[in-house]
Amino acid sequence: MKNFKQKDGILKIGDINVLTLVKEYATPLYVYDVEIIRKQYESLKHSIPKEVKIFYAIKANPNLSICSFLRSLGAGAEIASSGELYLALKAGFEGKDIIFNGPGKTDEDIQYAIQNNVLLINIESMDELSRLNTIAKTEERIIKVCLRINPIHVVTSVKMQTGGGSQKFGIDEENIETVIQLALESEWVELVGIHIYVGSQILDQEVLLENIANTLHIACRAAKHFTLKYINFGGGLGVPYNDYEPEFNVEHFAKGLTTLINKVSQEHDLSQTQFFLEPGRFLVSESGIFLTKVLSVKESRGKRYAIIDGGINHAFLPIRMNKQYPTAIANKMREPNEHAITLGGPLCTSMDVFTTEVKLPNIALNDIISIFNSGAYGFSASMLYFLSGTMPAEIIVQNGKSFIARQRGRKEDFLLNCDEEMKCRNLS
Ligand SMILES: Cc1ncc(COP(=O)(O)O)c(C=O)c1O
Q: Is the CB of 310 under 6 A from ligand 1?
């Protein structure tokens, strides 16, 4: 909540009274303050060495306005599906600023990426490499690839781990020489680098640095066989979700990264090498608040419940991660948090419960609950059409102004892609 102020007990975002936004756009509602995204991006960009380029992991928040804002700040785009590539292009990213990840790319995905001249594709398996070579041949274009390597182990373990041990991601480190050989023999492939992403929500910069040191070590082993143009350290920079979690220390991280790169450069010629980071959560999480209205307050056998109009179809990750996201009542910011309440969404499933017995001010009908840190993996990681609930709207605020960045969903959306014949087919 550190980024937000209140006036007369009412929460403000981007200098706007939240109740004004609720009146204008209704709930449930995602609101993003893009100045917070700027602050996060610039704090990172201005600290890290100039040879390190930032690619925004679009999966964290694929809203077109946000993607295009990050592009305007100078970020590239990290994408992991044709849909994200389509969005990235619509947001104004050029192919040369896009890298394509993902353990399960279809032939169509690969073809679409080649046709749009993405900078490179990260290969996650031997058969994907062969498939890519065949598709590149058909397209008559040589495609640059990096190898996503799954290291033998992560140096220090990470909670949301995507590397080390047995994984569905990447190619096991033990097989690195074999896959390099295969890539070098593939006529339509140009092998340009190594990619390792060990996991998300890393709060201790030392943990990330130790894993980056390991990436550099593996990359140098690979460099005996080809010219390393790119080393991609992945994303993973975390944000605190409560007062007990530390801030990710960007300055220390940047200093450590500079030291690591300088040290390796003394032993290996990395003068032709560019380095990539692909953060998602760190750039956008703290910019977003999910606003939802209290529809009902009740007691069941000694426990108090508030039923809100936002559910797991709008914000699933707080429940999936079993994380207590910072929560407040936007219209009671000055009242003490001394009443335990369980916040349940409107859906007919017991899964749809946000927080159990969170301490908030005394809650009443029509209060506006604000769930902070909702800018990353909020909208994008939700079960958007679950139980035929409609999509929430998304709003951008900047310097006292607000505008709509995604219209609220409508009931009619549920017939999208159903033509008249499908709608009317009489099955008996
Ligand atoms: C390959 C890859 N890169 C980057 C990211 C972004 O991670 P984070 O949001 O933790 O920075 C992800 C997230 O899943 C990913 O899969």
A: no
